[in-house]
């Protein structure tokens, strides 16, 4: 079962995992394992939906939590078309979200890609023994919750090395 989800990480921070159920008849917020997920009716997510559902929602919430801890986070997104459009640019500016510059050819700068890989590995270890098809989202949320903060912190601490590797490779793929 394919699940579209969103989450974010920072040093000593991991957001809840949000689920986008694109087949839901109406938008609504529900709770699973005390973790909220977003259900949205749509055939996919485009830039305006991303801005409304993520930038104005869980991403802004995460930024406010981090600001409350005395931090000034940069928002790191890849160059997917849903992130790169005038509507999202205007929304980020309106909300005061500062975007980390990202080269067009390198996923290597985004440590959450490693967190997604870790999530997939944890899900593979769980299924099919402990997850029925109806419970896929519950298993996904549980696996996300179980990723240790130490792992997240190592990913964030590795950013200077990632930046240097991308510079050396002129923005092309690196070992990360």
Topology:
Layout: E1 4-6, E2 9-10, E3 13-14, E4 18-20, E5 23-32, E6 35-41, H1 47-68, E7 74-75, H2 86-95, E8 98-99, H3 112-126, H4 136-146, H5 149-157, H6 159-168
Parallel strand pairs: 7-8
Antiparallel strand pairs: 1-4, 2-3, 5-6
Q: Which CATH architecture is right?
A: 2-Layer Sandwich
What is the β-strand count? 8
Q: In the residues, how many domains can be counted?
A: 1
Q: Give the neighbour order of strands across the main sheet.
A: 1-4
Q: Note the quaternary state here.
A: single chain
Count of individual helical segments? 6
Describe it.
With 176 residues, the protein is α+β, with helices and mostly antiparallel strands. The chain has one domain: Ribonuclease H-like superfamily/Ribonuclease H (Nucleotidyltransferase, domain 5). Helix content is 44%, strand content 18%. It has 6 helices and 8 strands, in the order ββββββαβαβαααα. It has helices at residues 47-68, 86-95, 112-126, 136-146, 149-157, 159-168; strands at 4-6, 9-10, 13-14, 18-20, 23-32, 35-41, 74-75, 98-99. The strands form 4 sheets. Strands 1-4 form a two-stranded antiparallel ribbon. α2 links the parallel β7 and β8. It is globular and about 45 Å long.
């Amino acid at each position: 079962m394919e699940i579209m989800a969103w989450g974010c990480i920072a040093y000593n921070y991991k957001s809840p995992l949000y689920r986008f159920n694109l087949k839901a008849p109406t938008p609504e917020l529900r709770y699973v394992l005390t973790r909220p997920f977003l259900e949205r009716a749509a055939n996919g997510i485009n830039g305006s939906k991303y801005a409304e559902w993520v930038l104005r929602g869980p991403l802004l919430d995460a930024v406010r939590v981090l600001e409350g801890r005395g931090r000034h986070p940069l928002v790191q997104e890849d160059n997917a078309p849903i992130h790169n459009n005038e509507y999202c640019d205007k929304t980020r500016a309106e909300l005061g979200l500062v975007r980390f510059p990202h080269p067009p050819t390198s996923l290597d700068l985004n440590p959450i890609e490693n967190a997604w890989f870790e999530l997939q590995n944890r899900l593979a270890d769980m299924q099919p023994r402990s997850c029925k098809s109806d419970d896929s989202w519950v298993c996904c949320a549980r696996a996300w919750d179980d990723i240790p903060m130490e792992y997240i912190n190592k990913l964030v601490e590795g950013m200077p090395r990632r930046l240097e590797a991308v510079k050396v490779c002129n923005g092309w793929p690196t070992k990360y």
